[in-house]
Write a structure and sequence with these properties.
By secondary structure, the chain is mainly β. 12% of the residues lie in helices and 44% in strands. It has 3 helices and 11 strands. It is globular, with a radius of gyration of 16 Å.
């Protein structure tokens, strides 16, 4: 597989969920978790996004879409990240920029909100909703009061990029944070 196709696949999967913030310093979650999201796909196989946090300094974003299995292991303590393309046995360092923090720091969504949407229960989670502009696109986020993660992320007009929380685990296995192929 050529590098441009790999880059394009990565951009399609991860770009909607990564937003620049002003500083790499952030207040990481104190509780470990694993959140599994469904991502609707128009003509594609079912897609999934997994976001896991070890409760200290390691986060993993794992996306499966169009048969591509991509992971980014982010080490915030040492300011580095590694992109894994498991099917191709490729591991590549990537810059750990401020763009990675929002995935794990839901306070960023609240701080960037241009409008609050109130509260409602979604899939059994009492949530608070927020609207904000993400790289020129209006985005709607619902954060669970109980789990402190995104329960729903909506991109009006780009429904195939929406995320819906399918499951939440407060005790992810150590294997979730494996930095090997």
């Amino acid at each position: 597989m050529n590098k441009s196709r790999i880059s394009a696949s990565l951009a399609i999967i991860l770009t909607p969920y990564v937003v620049a913030v002003n500083a790499l310093a952030f207040d990481p979650p104190k509780q470990a978790y694993k959140a599994v999201y469904d991502m609707p796909s128009a003509k594609e196989a079912k897609a999934q996004m997994i976001i896991a946090w070890n409760g200290k300094d390691i986060g993993v974003t794992h996306a499966v879409r169009n048969g591509e299995n991509l992971r980014i292991v982010s080490d915030f303590k040492n300011h580095r990240a590694i992109l894994f393309m498991d099917a191709h046995k490729i591991a590549s360092p990537v810059p750990l920029s401020a763009e990675f923090t929002e995935i794990y720091d839901v306070q960023t969504y609240k701080n960037k909100a241009t409008k609050t949407l109130g509260s409602k229960t979604i899939n059994g989670h009492k949530c608070h909703g927020y609207i904000f502009v993400d790289h020129g696109t209006t985005r709607e986020i619902w954060i669970g009061d109980d789990c402190k993660v995104m329960v729903v992320s909506k991109y009006p007009g780009a429904e195939k990029n929406n995320l819906t929380l399918k499951s939440f685990d407060k005790s992810p296995a150590d294997s979730e944070f494996n930095a090997t192929i």
